[in-house]
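Entry 14. Structure prediction run on the chain below.
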Amino acid sequence: MANKIRPKVAMAFNTFSRKLSRSTQLLDNADIDLCREDDLLQKKIDERDKDYRKAIVTAYSRFMNPFRVLGKTSREALEINEDEQNLLRAYNLFRAVKKADEEIGNASTFIQLEGIKSPLTEKMRYTTGGDLIYLQCWLIYEQGVRDYVPCLVEVEERLETYYRLEFVPTKSYDFNWQDREVIAEIEETFYHGRKK
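Output returned:
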């Protein structure tokens, strides 16, 4: 009887070994497929990152030199140039008021500037459209303004919402993570890694 059981055990063991061998081959193939999927996913991520960086460079190029990039007769170039001049004018007005306050005012008599009215505060591309960062970078890098950062502050008053332009000291202004990514790409591409 022991002789009859041995061939059955050997045959069962043989069958089990073949099945185990096939299942490990399937696992090896599954690992290869997962690696291919990871590679494809990484490639897609890299392509999106490259497209995102390219979009930043393209957008900032329009602010750096709108007439060269968009054309001398481009309406958008004229608008961007006007927006830049309005921002610079607002900054100069702000600095003049601050300087007068420092020279004439004292601890009990001083100017409390709540914001500046500017056409920029009425343009959706800056209030909610995401282009304000390019104007900020233009002011910082192209105009050399490093003491204050312009920002648009949303104000709710009597059931109305509007924006006002404010200048915040650079050391106390915190750019959000998306703006920091934009700034890093602009610094690297246009200013050879020079920090603001």
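The CA atoms of residues 42 and 195 lie 29 Å apart.
Filed with the rest of this week's runs.
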